[in-house]
Amino acid sequence: MKSFFSISGNVESSPLHLGTSLLVATASMLYINATVGAMGGIPLWVGMMVVFYVIRGIVIAGNRMTHHLAFCSKQEVRRMMAAYGIAFFAIWAVMKILLTLAQMLGWGSVSGMTAKECFDSIYGSTLVERWAYVFAAILVISFVMSLFPLIVIRKKELWTAYLIIDGIAFWGISRLVIRICDIWIRKTDRQKIHSVMDALFMCVTPYKWQAGLFLGGAVILLLMITGMVYMIATHCYGPKPGNTIRIPEYFQTENPKEREKIQKEKRKTLILVIVAAVVLVLAVAAFVLFLIAGRMQEEPSYHKVAECLTEDRSFGPVVYNDQVYIPVHCSLDYHENEEPKGYFAYKGENVDSRFYQLSIANMLYTGENGEFPDYLEMYGADMNSYERADKVEKDTEWKNDSIFVLWDEEWLDETAYSRDRTGYSICEKGIVEMLENEFGEVAYRPEDFDDYDAYFTISGYQDPKEAFGDEVNCGEWVGCILVKDNHFYYGNYDNAITGVTLQELLKVLGGNEMQQETQS
Amino acid sequence: MLYYLELEVEKGCENMTELELQKIYQRAGNFFLKDINFSMEKGSVTALIGRSGAGKSTLIRLIAQAEIPEVGKILYEGREMYEDEKNIRSRLSVVYDKPNFNMELKAGRLAEKIKKIEPDFSMDMFQKYMEIAQLDRSIKIKQYSTGMQKKYMLILALCRQPELLLMDEPTSAVDPVSREEMLQMIRDYRSWQNVTILFSTHNYEDIEAIADHVMLLRKGELIYHQSKDEVAKEFADKEQILKELGE
């Protein structure tokens, strides 16, 4: 690559060449958006534009390396291909980084994100999402490589034909990938698929070998395309046997009028070819816009409207319209008749990724249209019910319970990694009564959950099986404990737990250091 | 035995022909290059003359394979380019009417880069010719004047030690002193290498200095291809030749 750029001469700078480069870059961007999805954008456009303009510019200016070096065309094509592939990938990567930086600095629609948050928002936060992006990236590079012969083909008719055939072939490949993904996709979900990325997201791969198989297949495809393209390019670019028999008609006449007539015919053909190419690109553009418009109509765009306030996805409170809601053990069926209000995210969950929207989205439903409905329903990948906190606080059902459990914020994860049940402490009813008697009805404020150091939920149960059975049961809400800077609070930062109540609570938590500090 | 001798003679004769063009036709817009047939003996120097637009540059680009002829064959020592491209390329140097390499590099740096890829490129010759041409190798090529760039292009072409040298108006826009330096370099190179040269020119002094054959192109057709002495006989005076040269 280095030798190609450092030795090759100036670039052809005609308006026609600039127009052709614009055509190729724009067509590629639209085409990738329509077939692969999510990977075609400004970085792809810029990469194609620069690489195509510069390298084809060198070729059509006739500034061949072989004029200065004892090279054959095959060697030159190899260097040209390396320059094309590496330069495209480098520009693409740089543009991706620049766009990420732009988003982090607040130039994009997402402002003030950290690098990790920004990366996660684009490429997902789990391996299940990321492997799909890697696969799609290899597919995009394969497509870009498949366009390489357009750099060296000089005959306009052949150039246009190659562009069309390559487009059809790649469309076939993308359909094939979607077909393969169909094996793992539920029938009801298939209608959601518009592109390869959609299919990959829907095709949840529980086993690493499946993802590995896909990625291996993509790499083999890339190698095959590169090999095929190399053969086509060397054939087009290399010298060919001369012909001394077929002499075209326009050389056989001396008559200027006849020559002019032949020239006119040629010009007509050329204009037709150019018009066909422009019409083709416009048709692709219209098709893509049609797809996008259809998709927008089919899938109403939602925003995040509710979010968990803690990492405890089962027992922790949530916020909707700045109002705190508490999980309750009842089943709601709003989703059967109501339209969703928006996404209902777990704490820190990225709802903007296509993967989330297609595969793991949870929607919020309410039974009434008021600003602060009594109940919320989470429905989607998970199903939970919530009641407004001020209503729950008025409820004294817990007084009938006999077992009270102090759930650690991450009890679910701890339990998942241990044979024994972990992440909780059983506490005496007396402590619960001490807390309730001291603080009474608690007014929950969403902002109090922004910067706590630790969090615990207190739930009440009548039967141990309810608390520790196989099914997750949130029981009766009693309250929650927030810990910040070694101080304990009941529900909000106005309710500091002190004195005997704190000592009793620390015994339940098995506290040691904090207890000593409190005593001192 | 006689049969083998005949074959050897035939083969020997074949090898004497460095370049042969058969039925070359090429079209570019309204310009036509038509039915060009000629051959050049090894070691000969042919000046390609004709008025502007006669097809001289196109013909040189065709021989250099910068363009592919629509019809016709170009044979280099009896072989077409596709048959032995690498070998033919290694024996062929081209000096175009303007530089077709990266002019952002320093003169010495480009030569070093070429040397890295092409081991036959002679850095000793480069050094020697740069001194003759009084060119500073430490400045960028684009900072050279047009005349200096022409000299530099010739130096690069000669340092590849070609057996076939094609030059498109090598001495145009070059001052008389520099022109003499360039011609001197070519003469010097010819003194030890049996090089075949085809160059286009509008300059009668160039023909007198190095050419032994002259080829005249008029409106895309080859009018004649004769030795310099026969040309002198054909044209009554120098004025007539100058007219054909477009001067």
Automatic annotation (TrEMBL), chain A:
Keywords: Membrane, Transmembrane, Transmembrane helix
Transmembrane segments: 42-61, 82-105, 131-152, 159-178, 211-233, 269-293
Name the record gives this protein: Uncharacterized protein
Lineage: Bacteria, Bacillati, Bacillota, Clostridia, Lachnospirales
Automatic annotation (TrEMBL), chain B:
GO-annotated molecular function: ATP binding; ATP hydrolysis activity
Matches recorded under InterPro entries: AAA+_ATPase, ABC_transporter-like_ATP-bd, ABC_Transporter_VariousFunc, P-loop_NTPase
Statement: the UniProt record of this protein carries the keyword Transport: yes
Keywords for the protein's UniProt record, in alphabetical order: ATP-binding, Nucleotide-binding, Transport
Domain ABC transporter per the UniProt entry, residue ranges: 16-244
Annotated Pfam families: ABC_tran
Record-given protein name: ABC transporter ATP-binding protein
Provenance organism: Roseburia porci
